[in-house]
Amino acid sequence: MRSYLDFEKPVAELDSKLDELRTLAAAGTDIGEEISRIEVKAAQSLAELYANLTPWQKTLVARHPQRPHFSDFIRGLITDFTPLAGDRKFGEDEALVGGFGRFRGESVCVMGQEKGDSTESRIKHNFGMARPEGYRKAVRLMEMAERFGIPVLTLADSAGAYPGIGAEERGQAEAIARSTDACLSLGVPNVAIITGEGMSGGAIAITTANRVLMLEHAIYSVISPEAASSILWRDGTKAQEAANSMKITAQDMLRFGVIDVILKEPVGGAHRDPAAMIATTGEAVAHAFKELAGLDADAIRKQRRAKFLEIGRKLS
Prior knowledge:
alpha/beta, 2 domains, 8 strands
């Protein structure tokens, strides 16, 4: 069943009307012309709405529960996926999933945050908020990938690293820093995708890559709008105002040079046609890896270093 966001109310009303008319048509009423007219109107309304989304509305779209998650991208893009568990130091973290598989016949190391798509799976994956063990597992996977000359693909979709007391006691900040350093130090190509929310160091820890791609209605920031609102105004209810001021959209990120490519979403967002979004992502990932093919380890590191130094120059 399709879920509508608050700002999609005009589209929801048209879709509801269409459902009623289709029920009547199925019963034998001749209203095909009226159905066609409203279908066109609904499509136009949806296209116009999504062509002019505010940053806060994009935030809501990025968080849509029916948006394709890490597991969906794995099923659509990766064959023979073998997940690996544990950081070999403390335990397993279910929020950050990673392993090895094949992308279009070639070996690849792939990892990312999994939010889950049901109450049970969301609790299991801690809503995509990784603990230190998750980032140490990421480092372990990247070290294995480099040892065997396997490129790395990462997908970020998280409200941030888990802020619990236990996570802080086990070195959350240090684990994030080491994961970021591992990304920067890789001698194999790495490509990162922000698929939904790319919040805080929890996202940066796995997206410091040679090529950074971002879905059209995803968001990417060092802090969530709610947290920014709490810090700036001591009022968490001003998240919408914060989002509209923070420059968190894919369009902002491309302009600042933080990302390299925006992946166009189906009209109405990736959640309306996940299969099409996953196919588009696959083409973009293949192109990104092709651009990096043939570079030796030193050239890959230099390209990545130059990319992030240039971001600093643009924003300074």
